[in-house]
Each structure stands twice: as C-alpha cells, then as structure tokens.
Amino acid sequence: MRSNYRHHSVYAVSASKNRLLGWALALALLLVLATATWLAGLDTQRKVAPMGGATPAGPRHADDESTRVASIPPEERHEILLCQALGPAAPYDICGVDCAACNCGRRWEAMRAIEWQAYAQGEYVGHARLAHVPEYRLRVDDQLDMTYRLTREETATPYRLNVGDEVQVESFTDHEIDRGLLIQPDGTITLRLLGQVHATGRTVPQLRDALEEAYKKYYKTPAITVTPLKVNTKLDDLRATIDRRAGIGGQSQAVRVTPEGSISLPAIGSVQAQGLTLTELQTELNEAYRQVVDGIQVIPMLTQRAPRYVYVLGEVNSPGRFELTGPTTALQAVAMAGSWRVGANLRQIVVFRRGDDWRLLATLINLEGALFGNQPCPRGEIWIDDSDVIIVPKGKILIADDFIELVFTRGVYGVFPMINSIQFSKLSSL
Q1: pLDDT tens track for 384-403
Q2: Do strands 188-191 and 388-392 pair parallel, antiparallel, or not at all (unpaired)?
Q3: Which of 270, 304, 338 marks a domain boundary?
Q4: What are phi and psi of 359, to 5 degrees?
Q5: pLDDT, greater one: 40 or 190
Q6: Pairing state of beta strands 179-182 and 166-171?
Q7: CB 416 within 8 A of CB 361
Q8: Residue 242 lies in domain
Q9: DSSP state of 260
Q10: Which of 35, 81, 88, 320 is 20 to 30 A away from residue 75, measured at CA?
Q11: If we measure between CA atoms, which residue out of 115, 114, 121 comes closest to residue 83?
Q12: pLDDT of 323-378, one tens digit each?
C-alpha cells in the first residue's frame, strides 16, 4: 500500500508539472499570434501611408514648378511665396489628416494632401495660432502690476480744499491779516481776530466769501483775497506711496489676487478682481479712485498667471505634479509624465476634474489608438484643465501578475517554503 501511495504522489506531481508546462506553452502561443497580428497591422499602415505620406506630386513636378517660378521676373511676382511651400527645399507634398474635416476615430485611410509645411511670414518655427481664449478673466493668485499716470485733465467740478493744502490769505485793508496758512488735520486754519475757521470741503471762492463775511465785524471793507499755494495733496500722498522712480522706475504697485478674489491698493483699499477682465478691472479702479482723488489713472497689467497643475499617476514612468504653462492635452500630459509603462490599460484612462463649485467630475478616455499610431484623430485627446488628475490604470496582465505575486510568491510560499519552488510571477510574464 505504501508503494502504491508513493507511485500516486509521483504521478500527481508529474501531472501538475505537465499542466503548468501546457499553460506556459499556450500563453507563449497566444503572445506569438498577437505579435504577428500587430506586425501585420503595421505593414498595412505602411502600405497606406509609406514614409509618413503619399506623394501626389513627384519630385519632377516640384522641380518643374520651382523652375517656372524662378523664371518669372521679380517685378511680375505679385503673390507672396510661403517660405516652406512646395519647392526645392520641400519637393514633396505631405499628406495628413485634418481632424476638422473627418470623423473622429477614423484611421489613416482618410489621409490627403494638406498644407503641412506652409508657414506665413515670421512663422518659420510655428504657426501664429489664435488666442487661447476670447477673453481672460482674473483668478486667485494672478499677479498684477498697477501702473499709475497723471491725467492732467480739467475737472468738471471746482476743486475743494483738503487737509494739508496751503493757502495765502491777504487783506487790502489790514496787512496784519496777510499770512500763508496750512490747513490743519482738523480741517481748520487760524486767522488773526477770527481764530479757527473751517476750510476743508470748501472751494477757494467759498472760503474767501466766508472770511469776508466774518471780518466785517472788525472792518467796514475787509477786501479779503485767498490764493491757493499748494493743492491736491491727496494726489501727492498717493504718488509718494507708489513712487518707484528710485528703483525699477515709474509709479506702480505690484499686487496679487487674494484667495477671496480681491486686491488691495493705496487710498481705496480692497477691490474685487476675480472674474473680471483687465478692462473691467481698470474701469472699477478708476471709478474708485475718482471718489477719493482726481487726476490719476490706473492701468492694470497681468505680469504672471496663477500656477496651474495637472497630476498624472498610475502606470507612467514619472508620476507626479506638472505645471501647465500653456494649453495642454491628455497626450501631452502623459508625455510630461515620462510616457506609459508596458502593460498599462490605455483604453480606460481616468480623468478627474473639479467644477466651478468644486464638485467632482470624471470621464474615461481611450488613447490606445493614438499612442500605437492607429488613429489620427482619437476621441480621447482632450484638453486638460487646471488641477485635473489623470490615472493610467494597470492592464489585466499586470493585475493578474500582482495577484499571483501576492497570493502565491509572497503568500503561499511565505507560509510553506519549498526547496524547488515555482515562480508563478515569472510564468505569468512569459
């Protein structure tokens, strides 16, 4: 009976090894078939578009065209030739796919001749594309430089005296009254015989009439005159606050949009800025300053935008946070993260996004066709927004490999170590 038991055990081990070997051979055969299918697809693409493009117009046609153009006298050339148009420097037409003229997701069969190398004047390194957005609205952490300038324009209303202004009071009847006076912080001036007289908020004619009426108690004809010596001291104080002529030059103030969406400026305090365009902000600031002091104009200039980031994690070579310095797509974000790893699931890339009210949005995109060169206009090539989170998940093979690694290699073998152990994770990666 013991001999039969030993014979049965040897048979069971041999059968297990045969099954494992059969699984390994089957997996290898599947990989070979998949590789052959993929290579056949690449060969088909090369037949559709050899060397990256078709050549409707051959080099002979290009040479004839360039010769014809060169034979035309300069005075008869009315059209402006593009610097890299069809000619000796670029003798072949370039075929490509314009995603605006075809259905998204189509393959390379839609290729046609397009102006691939046509640049206008001054565009030898890139096209002068349209503006990123029709209008830019300020957001938190944007940095602005406020430039101040004197308008030197005539005001529509008479000037009213302020604290710190200086006036000259004179009398043709009694020259003992004559003196230069500084309007004190309490808004008054001190005069002979009269004492304290309120001056702020009055125009020069109004102050003269008030003094004339007050001195009639002492003189039959006072004959008072008031001459302004120094006025608009509020403007001088503001200019002293923003004066940078001894430093970077000019009269300006650097500000940053606070988390509450406002900016703070001298004399007017906090002003809401988030969501406004630069033109709208300029109107708001000038109106606020007009309520305080005349003769000044503020011109806001955007010096630095608030930093914008995208977060890429998962099966990429360099996951992390990356700054968006310009319009960025999903493919560009994956490229910034060092490209994808082998085994990544490129068909189900997850993109998380926060709405204006911070609610969570999510979508699935498919970049496999684009990354493997099968789709010229992939639907998954979307624009990335600030604070987007892009997750490149693992494929099924990597998930199975992790399961085998955790359960068998690190799990079962850790509890029951065997001398001739089988590395299941290596078998799964054949």
Answers
A1: 999 999 999 999 998 888 88
A2: unpaired
A3: 304
A4: -75, 155
A5: 190
A6: antiparallel
A7: no
A8: 143-155+235-304
A9: T
A10: 88
A11: 121
A12: 999 899 999 999 999 999 999 999 999 999 999 899 999 999 999 999 998 888 88
